[in-house]
Design goal:
The complex is a heterodimer of chains A (313) and B (526). Chain A has 313 residues and is mostly helical. Chain A is built from 11 helices and no strands. Chain A has one domain. In chain B, the strands form 5 sheets. Chain B has a 5-stranded mixed β-sheet with strand order 1-2-5-4-3. In chain B, strands 8-9-10 form a 3-stranded antiparallel β-sheet. Chain B has a 3-stranded antiparallel β-sheet with strand order 13-14-15. Classes of the chains: A mainly alpha (313), B alpha+beta (526).
């Protein structure tokens, strides 16, 4: 392991932890504006997380070690997964880091524990959330694999670092098929981060919850960790989409100047994407639960098309 | 048309058939008819009514109403705009008619819990009004019982716990929801039996906050009961008070000035607009379309502010009193209202256009939560819920009160009975109400707004159309004070519609269906 990779490990993790909550807030702010409200400050989420970290953690008397372990598994899995998706600086890959299949299953690991924790507390809403999350993931997982497979076909590599390096070198979407792929990646982003039209992150109605249902029984610092994991997941999926489709600014050289420029550009790009997500969410209602597969089918269709193009073109 | 036809007397005679009963029928102060029947006459008569498509819209008990009988049960039947009250005197028990007329089920259980009357053949014998923690032999509505919270049982034997209907089978499980909910919602328990996400059965349990409202009104001056009527249900404050005042005024023969009626009607329609806007915003929040919801939520807030400007109360409280309204409204405030109505109509239409042109919203609204037309009469489902399912009842048209006979609203009927129909019916009603307010403002008569009210003894029934549907109120004044004040809001009947509307739907659609029916907990738990 060389020095630049060591630096990357530290800087990327710190950066992700710092900016992830901000991006969640930006989406909220855009939605509030679309509704004619002024919305809370984008920095409010940091105070909320700090407050939760200080508060007492309450466990249901029915809960087991699963409930206690899940927040740590979740944040750990997300932070490791975040290492697979460089935000601004792409080093040479070391070991298995950057492997896109491993990335997928790190996300699945966190999801699996979250679903277990939803069942663990014994509340009916947690159980319903877990059951819905698992139904959705059973349908979305093959789609995600096909989308990732399409990426692999386009870049001829299984490693996210190689993909990013290739698109950074090209400076623009290297092939038009990537534009199609962006649609699939956007759908996966929406599904994986439990946003409208799949789930409603702002609802108070337990009977309709998916992601929120599973973390309903979490409190105090555990809740803060779960919220933070969700924010990190959102950031890493946004970074994956942005650094493949609009890679400008992304750098492969370790120099303070280029990294600073890349960082500013990255925050700008994510802000724009967060705005798009916010407007996208505002423009439609949540889908009927059993209609969701049709949304996934769209992602599936586009990525299958790309594979066909890449194989036969 | 002869005199009998205009008062509905011929229909009453037709219903009662040839015989002594038709001779005994008397007319009440508000155009309703009373007939006292004996225990032997009762069941055959009710059976005949049930087969002749009469709706049982009210059933309640009162004490020492007839000489020599400790209790009297009053059964209010409606058919074609005629109201007939059957009075059945009893010492202790009465036959149950819930099998013939399902809308009798809750009231019979209420009379049993509140007065200790035994109904023979009651198919659902579970507690209703007073839950199992109340002491045995405690009857909260009896005159001899003080209207204070009783000493509750510290614990309940498992055998006495409320048995919910359970659906058996592979993979069927129950989801208990409430009575404590997320968000600011009143208490109610919902017990779902589901397979996966599909709802097979839902049972609603209410009455978690029995407030003793009816008893609170007893032995008070009618002028003071107004405050109690206002607190029956927050966003039905005006209409419930109007119902009470109509009864008190009809008994006393008070003539309410024209200007007072015009202003009362404006208040009632403002209240309807506020309530409907809240429902529409809520329905859109529940399908996660806050962009649409905010259009209506903003207008609703503005309606409350104009209410406050006109009356000093966002819920228009303190205005309606027996004899008229408590004080006149300033001309400049009325002009502000006229201007508000003009500008709000345009913005409301824009909001509607946004919502109804969003495919994802329509997809959630239709065909979700269908209330079938066949349950409307048996359960006495009224209001927008009924009109969205093919019903054409509206108290303002069927039993016009105040100046509605001169300004009858158009009855907006749709036939699909789903959430979309209920949303659309409310939209039409909001626009109609805005039109009516505008019309009333341009033709507002001058003059006083209050006639001296002098309480007289007597009893009568009054019906009003609240935003939620038909509200019934029966007032008996004796020795100048209220002897019995019975309120039955539309929600009391409409709650049962939800048990039917959710069958076969999926659990995540329940909050939307619930919101589209807009049921009041407070209006049920009196």
């Amino acid at each position: 392991m060389n020095l630049s990779f060591g630096l990357y490990l530290i800087l990327n993790t710190v950066a992700v932890l710092l900016v992830a909550p901000l991006f969640v807030s930006i989406i909220k702010k855009v939605k509030a504006r679309a509704q004619g409200r002024s919305g809370q400050s984008v920095f409010q989420i940091y105070f909320t997380l700090a407050k939760l970290l200080k508060k007492e953690t309450v466990y249901s008397s029915h809960s087991s070690w699963v409930m206690r372990l899940t927040p740590y598994v979740s944040i750990a899995a997300m932070l490791v997964a975040a290492l697979f998706v460089p935000l601004v600086f792409v080093p040479e890959p070391v070991g298995g880091i950057g492997n896109i299949i491993l990335l997928l299953y790190l996300l699945a690991l966190a999801r699996f524990f979250m679903a277990l924790a939803g069942l663990d507390a014994g509340s009916p809403f947690g159980g319903m959330g877990s059951s819905r999350e698992m139904s959705i993931s059973a349908i979305i997982e093959p789609t995600t694999i096909i989308v990732f497979a399409a990426l692999v076909f386009v870049f001829k590599s299984l490693n996210v670092f190689d993909m990013f390096a290739a698109s950074a070198a090209a400076g623009a979407p290297s092939t038009p098929t990537l534009i199609l792929l962006a649609i699939s990646l956007f759908i996966i982003l929406v599904v994986e981060t439990s946003r409208i039209p799949v789930d409603n992150p702002e609802t108070h109605l337990e009977l309709t919850m998916i992601h929120e249902g599973m973390i309903l029984e979490q409190s105090g610092k555990n809740l803060a960790l779960m919220e933070l994991s969700a924010a990190v997941k959102l950031t890493l999926l946004m970074a994956l989409l942005l650094n493949l489709i609009v890679p400008f600014g992304l750098t492969t050289t370790l120099a303070i100047g280029t990294i600073a420029v890349a960082a500013v550009l990255f925050v700008l790009k994510v802000t724009v994407l967060a705005g798009i997500i916010g407007l996208f969410e505002s423009s439609m209602a949540k889908m009927r639960f059993f209609r969701l597969p049709s949304l996934f089918a769209m992602a599936f269709f586009f990525s299958t098309l790309i594979i066909i193009i890449e194989v036969f073109a | 048309m002869n005199a009998d036809e205009s008062t509905g007397k011929h229909l009453v005679h037709e219903l009662l058939g040839p015989g002594p009963l038709a001779e005994q029928v008397t007319e009440g102060c508000n155009g309703e008819w009373y007939v006292r029947v004996s225990g032997t006459e009762f069941l055959p008569l009710v059976t005949a009514f049930a087969s002749r498509e009469c709706a049982l819209i009210g059933l309640f008990c009162t004490e020492r109403f007839s000489p020599g009988a400790p209790f009297s049960l009053l059964y209010v039947f409606e058919k074609k705009g005629v109201l007939l009250v059957i009075v059945l005197d009893t010492a202790q028990s009465a036959p149950s008619i819930a099998r013939l007329l399902p809308s009798a089920c809750w009231p019979e259980r209420e009379c049993r819990d509140g007065f200790g009357i035994a109904f023979e053949g009651l198919f659902d014998e579970r507690r209703l009004l007073l839950h199992e923690t109340y002491p045995d032999d405690y009857y909260s509505l009896k005159k001899s019982v003080a209207n204070v919270p009783p000493l509750m049982k510290p614990s309940v034997d498992p055998s006495e716990e409320y048995p919910f209907r359970s659906v058996q089978g592979d993979g069927v499980y129950q989801i208990p929801v409430g009575p404590v909910h997320a968000g600011i919602i009143e208490p109610g328990h919902f017990r779902f039996s589901v397979i996966g996400e599909k709802i097979f059965n839902l049972e609603v349990r209410m009455f978690y906050k029995h407030r003793g409202i009816e008893k609170l009104a007893e032995r008070r001056l009618p002028e003071d009961v107004v405050r109690i009527a206002e607190s029956v249900s927050g966003d039905e404050s005006v209409v419930n008070t109007v119902a009470f005042c109509i009864a008190a005024e009809k008994i006393a023969g008070t003539h309410v000035p024209e200007r007072a009626w015009a202003l009362r009607t404006i208040f009632m329609e403002l209240e309807r607009i506020g309530s409907h806007l809240g429902d529409q915003a809520g329905m859109l929040v529940d399908v996660a379309f806050p962009l649409g919801a905010s259009q209506f939520a903003v207008i609703r807030e503005e309606v409350f502010r104009i209410n406050a400007l006109l009356t000093g109360s966002r819920f228009l409280r303190g205005m309606v009193v027996p004899g008229g309204i408590s004080r006149d409204i300033r001309t400049e405030d009325l002009e502000a209202l006229a201007q508000f109505v003009r500008q709000v109509r345009k913005r409301y239409r824009t909001g509607l256009k946004i919502v109804l042109s969003t495919a994802s919203v329509i997809d959630r609204f239709s065909p979700t939560g269908v209330v079938r037309r066949s349950i409307l009469r048996p359960l006495n489902i009224t209001g927008p819920t009924s009109r969205a399912s093919g019903g054409n009842g509206d108290v303002r048209v069927d039993h016009p009160y105040g100046i509605y006979s001169r300004h009858p609203p158009s009855v907006r009927t749709l036939h699909d009975g789903d959430v979309l129909s209920r949303f659309t019916v409310r939209a039409s009603e909001i626009l109609d109400s805005l039109d009516l307010i505008e019309r009333l403002l341009t033709t507002l008569p001058e003059g006083t707004v209050k006639e001296a009210y002098d309480a007289k003894d007597g009893y009568t029934l009054s019906l009003v159309e609240s935003a939620r549907g038909q509200n019934l109120c029966w007032v008996w004044i004796r020795d100048g004070v209220v002897e019995r004040y019975k309120v039955r809001t539309a929600s009391y009947c409409n709650w049962l519609a939800i048990e039917h509307a959710v069958q076969g739907e999926i659990v995540p659609d329940f909050p939307l269906i619930n919101k589209s029916l807009n049921l009041s907990y407070a209006g049920t738990d009196l």
